[in-house]
Amino acid sequence: MTDEPKVDHLKANEPSAQPVKPSCRARRVTLASALKQARKAGVNVKRADIEPDGRVSLTFGNPNDPVTENEWDRVLHRDKN
User: Fold this and answer.
1) Does residue 81 lie within any of the structural domains?
2) How far is residue 51's CA from residue 53's CA, in Å, rounded to a whole number?
3) Full-prediction pTM beyond 0.70?
4) How many C-beta atoms lie closer than 10 Å to residue 56's C-beta?
């Protein structure tokens, strides 16, 4: 027999086979960073919305442009009057 120590081989699916890395989550975009990126890209932001789940959405265009109505806008405003 040899004098080498006996080595038990680990299987890949055993939990102790490889160290577990913590899961990496992407950071949420803040309103400030989204506006900064838009300014850097040279586009005008007409409107910015923050959804309840934290998503940020930007609408691009000239802020002084008139808002165009569609059929649903007229229907919804009719109910309010």
Assistant:
1) no
2) 5
3) no
4) 16
Residue 73 is assigned to a structural domain of this protein? no
Residue 15 lies in a domain: no
Task: Please name every residue paired with 56 in a beta bridge, in sequence order, or none if there are none.
Answer: 50
Cα dihedral: 60, 64, 66, 70 (round 10) = 20
Helix (H, G, I), strand (E, B) or coil at 19: coil
Structure token digits, residue 75: 């229907």
pLDDT tens per residue, range 11-55: 555 555 566 676 777 778 899 999 999 999 999 998 899 888 888
Number of structural domains the chain divides into: 1
3-state secondary structure of 51: coil
CB 48 within 8 A of CB 34: yes
